[in-house]
Amino acid sequence: MAKRIVKLEESVARQRLADVPPEKQFWCYDGRAIRNLSELATALKEINDETFAYHSNESKSDFSNWVKDVIGDEKLARDLQKSKLRSEAVKVVDNRIAWLKERAGLSL
């Protein structure tokens, strides 16, 4: 099956990198609020494995769901859902942010 190439508009890339409204923030088990993908990347680097496991396990995919439902990035949501380790989640979020910044014409 051939891969689909999707051209992401600059405005969509910028929107996905922007802060979400306060009522749509992600509230982490450790008490921190996450408002955008950059803050998600930082949180994933800083939280402990217990907090990661609370949000991402066999029965829950909180990070993936938030990215899909609030940020609107289905590709990143799928990649996060596949990430079983915190280090994998950090990598997929960092890579996606870099890709979105490139599409948005922002410096890395």
Give a nutshell description of this structure.
By secondary structure, the chain is mainly alpha-helical. The protein has helices at 10-17, 37-46, 49-55, 62-71, 74-82, 86-104, and strands at residues 26-27, 33-34. The chain has a domain at 36-108.
Kindly describe this structure.
- The protein has helices spanning 10-17, 37-46, 49-55, 62-71, 74-82, 86-104, and strands spanning 26-27, 33-34.
- With 108 residues, it is mostly helical.
- The chain has a domain at 36-108.
- A two-stranded antiparallel sheet has the order 1-2.
- Strand 1 and strand 2 (33-34) form a beta hairpin.
- The longest helix has 19 residues, at 86-104.
- The termini are far apart.
Count of strand segments: 2
- Main sheet, how many strands, which sense, barrel? 2 strands, antiparallel
Number of helices: 6
**Shape label:** globular
Helix content: 55-70%
Low-confidence stretches: none
How much of the sequence lies in strands comes to: under 5%
Strand order of the largest sheet: 1-2
Which value, in Å, is the CA radius of gyration? Answer: 14 Å
Oligomer: single chain
Whole-number average pLDDT?
92
What would you call the structural class? mainly alpha
End-to-end CA span: 32 Å
Write the H/E string, N to C. Answer: HEEHHHHH
Topology:
Layout: H1 10-17, E1 26-27, E2 33-34, H2 37-46, H3 49-55, H4 62-71, H5 74-82, H6 86-104
Antiparallel strand pairs: 1-2
Helix pairs in contact: 1-6, 2-6, 4-5
